[in-house]
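User: two proteins, same treatment. go.

Assistant:
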Amino acid sequence: MDRDRFFALSPELLATTEPDDRFHELSPAWTRCLGWTLDELRARPWIEFVHPDDVAATRALRQADTQPVHFVNRYRHKDGSYRWLSWSGSRMVDGTSYAVARDITEAKRTEEALRESEERYRELFDNAKDLNYTHDFAGNFTAVNNAAERISGYSREEALQMNIAQIVPPEYLDAVLPWVLRAGAETTTATYELEIVAKDGRRVPLEVNSRVIFRAGVPVGVQGIARDLTEQKRIEAALQVQREQLREDVDVTAALARVGSEMITSLATPVVLERLCRLTTEVLPCDASHIYLWQPGEEAYVPMSGHGHTPEQWEAMRVMKFPLALIRPLHEQLEREELVQVRRADARGRRALAMFRPGGTNAIMFVALRRAGELIGVLSASYLSRDESFTPQQLRIARGIAQLGSFALENARLVEELERADSFRSDFVATMSHELRNPLTVIMGYNELLLDGTFGAVSDEQADILRRANKNALELLDLVNATLDLSRFESRQVPLNQEVVAIDTLLDEVGAEMQAVSRKKQLAVQWEVSSEPITLSTDPVKLRMVLKNLIGNAIKFTDEGQITV
C-alpha cells in the first residue's frame, strides 16, 4: 500500500519493466509528461516510444553489465512531439528493471538556446565588420582587430606602434582627448562621431562607442567599437540630394500648375501675353518680365507685353524694336537652345543688356517661345537691382512657363483664326441669303400676278404649274430665311422677344404647318402632348422655327414609318 501511495504521489517518472520489455508499474506523472494513459503505455513495448535515433543506444544501455545506468533519451508524446528524459535505473537478476526519469526538455531547450547564442556570438565576433581596439590612457593602441586593419590600412604590427593622435585629425582630437583623460574618474562610457585618416590619406567617418576597461576595480585603458559610416554618410548625402530634388520638383510642379490653370482660360493673344509676363514675375520670382515677338517682315523682335516696370518705363520700351542685326548672337543661340542667361557682371552680358537699360537690368534670362519647333518670340525674366544668377530651380520653372506660354499663344492664334473663319462664313451666308431672297421675292411676286390674271388669263394647266413654282419658291425662301436666322443666331445678332406662350397652342400651329410636308411623303406625325396646360416664357417665333426645323429634318430623313414628337 505504501508503495502504491509512493508511486501515486511522486512527481518523478517512476517505472518498472518486465523481461518482455513492457512497462509494469508506472507513476501518474507519466501521463502528465507524455499525454498517454498508463494503460496505453503498458499496452506496447516501451521501445516503441523511444525516438528512432535513440533506440540502439537505449537497448545497449539496458543490456549493460554495469548497474545502475544513467542515460538520456527522447520519448514520444501523444501529440507526436518528443520529450527529453534523464534516466537512472537498475536491472535485477530476474530481468525486472526499476527506473526513475525526469523531464529535462526545458533544460535541453535552454541548453540548446545557450549553445546557439554562444555560436552566434563567436561567429559575430570572428566576422565583425566593425573596428575593435583598445588603447591605454596615453592613447597608445594595445590591440586592434582585422576590421581595424582593413579599414585603416595599417597592419596590426603598425597599429600597435601608433598613438590615436597619429590617425585622428586635430579637429576631432580636441574633443576625444579630454574624455580619454577623464575616463574612469568622471565617466566610464562615451559615444561620439569622428574621422580617422587612413594610411592612404582617406578620411573615414566612424561612430565610436567607448568604455573604460577595469582590472580589479582599477581603470587600465579604453576599449572601443567603431562603425565605418562611409556608406551611411554617402546614403545620407544621396537622400539629402533626393529630398532637395523632390522638394524642388514639388515647387516646380506647383508653380507650373498655377501658370497652367490661369493660362488655360486665356483665349485672346493680348490676355495670354499679359498673364504670361505677370505670372513669370510672380512664380519665379523676379523683378520684371517681357515678351518680344518675332516680326518676319521687319526682321526684328518687338516688345508686345511687360510686367514689373513703371508705365513710363514700359512706354519707353514698347516703342523700341530690336533688329536681328543687333541681337543675332542671342537669336542664333535661342534657335539652338531653350534658355540663355546673362549678367551685367559678365563681359559678354554687358553688351547684351545694354538694350534693356530703360528699366535698369542687371541680370536677365531669355527663354525661347516656339511654334512647331520654330522660334516665334522670347520670354524674358530679369533682376533690376540684384546682380545674381537665376537658380537651377528658376531655370526649370522658366522653361516650363515658356512651353505653357507657347501652347497658349498657339491656342489663341487658332481661336482667332477660327473666329475669323466663322465671321467670314457668317458674312458669306448673310450675303448669299440676301442675294437669293431678293430674286425669289420678285419671282413669287410675278407668279402671284400671273395667277391673278393681271397679265391675262391663264389655263388650268398653266395655273397649276405656276402654283407649283410658287410653292417651291416659297420652300426655297423658307430655307434661305432659316439659313439667315441660323447665321444670326450663331453670331448672337438675333434678339429674343420673350412672352408667355401656351405650348399646346403653339404645337397645334406647328402641326398644322407641317401637315402638308408629312402628307407629301405619306408619313404620320404622332404628337405626345401633356394633358396638363404648360406655359413657357420664350420667343414663340424662334421656338416655332426650331421645332419646324427639327420636324422637317425628321421627315426629310425618314423614308417610311412614323415620327413621334
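Protein 2:
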Amino acid sequence: MSEKIQPISNPELRKAMEAMHAGQNGREEQMVTLNLLLIANLLSPVNVMQEPGEEAQVQFMLLSTEDGRAFLPAFTDLEQLKLGFPDDKQKTLVLTFADYARMILQDNAAEGLVVNAFGASLTLERPLVEFLDKVQQDQEKNAPPVVS
C-alpha cells in the first residue's frame, strides 16, 4: 500500500503572519505566531548537485537583504514558495524550526530566518532564533512522557 504524500500547508501560521502585517501585532498575536512557527513543517528551497557515481549534495539557498545580510528562506506552503521560486522543478526539503535553528546557530552564513519572504513575511534574526530554540528545547525537556 502506498502512502499519499500530503502537501505542506500552514494556514493558521500564514493567517497569523498576514494579520501581523495588517497591524494586528500586539504581544499576544506575536506569541501565537511564534508558537505556530515552532510546530510548523516548512518548505526550504535547495539546490541538489550530484555527480555521476557520487552521493547527492544539498545546498541550502540564502536570500540577501539590500544591506548584504543573508537569511535562510522558509515557506509555509507551495503557493508562497512559488512567489520567489516559480520553477516547477525547484527542489525543496521539509524542515522544522529546530532544523533551521541548528543550521543558523552552527554556521555563520545566515543571520537568521525569513518565512514567506515574498509575501507577508516574518524575519527572525539570530538572537531571536537562539532564544526560541532554547525555549523549545526547555519545553521538550519538561514535556511529560508519551504513553503508548
